Amino acid sequence: MDAEVIRNELIAVAEVRLDRYRRLLSLAEEQRGILLAGRHAELVGNLANHDPVLAELAQLDRREEMLLARLNEAGDPSALSPDFEGKHQRIAEQTSEAATRLRSIVQGNAQLLANAMDFVSFSIGILSKLAADLPSYDPSAEAANPALVFDRKV
Fold first, then answer.
1. Most exposed of 22, 69, 128, 147 (fewest Cβ within 10 Å)?
2. Mean pLDDT for the chain overall
3. Position 79 confidence tier, pLDDT thresholds 50, 70, 90
């Protein structure tokens, strides 16, 4: 593979990576809407959509490492041309901005989930206390009451 082909491949990998980060951003924003609307049953489907994107990002990282190694092996002094570096740098900056925004949204979503868990724990605590304060059910007490044995309409 010559250096020009490798550079083009590296740019393509960077562009796909940026697209996948944008997809993760979209999913995170969708997740935020699900959490804010209290549609927690939809979370599983949303989270399942993250997995293939994350797997593809890992593949892109491996592909980029392989391409960079090949570029270094080529030993071409013009392998990192100013045009290539400029374009790659712009894409990398956009990806970094997307990653920063994604991190912020994910942290917000984690806080929303923590708040929901706190509410559930609080509710369970109240229900447990109420259940503990109720008198225990004694079925033998009802059997001793003759009014419960006979139908009143007869």
1. 147
2. 86
3. low
Amino acid at 142: E
pTM over 0.85: no
| Cα 152 to Cα 2: distance, rounded to the nearest angstrom | 97
Quote the CA–CA distance of 129 and 123 in Å, as a whole number.
10
CB-based contacts of 49-57 (< 8 A; 24+ apart in sequence): 50/24, 53/20, 53/23, 53/24, 53/27, 54/24, 56/16, 56/20, 57/17, 57/20, 57/21
Architecture of domain 3-109: Orthogonal Bundle (1.10)
Could you give the CA distance from residue 150 to residue 145 in angstroms, rounded to a whole number?
10
Cα distances from 118 to residues 44, 75, 115, 121, 125, in angstroms, run: 20, 58, 5, 5, 10
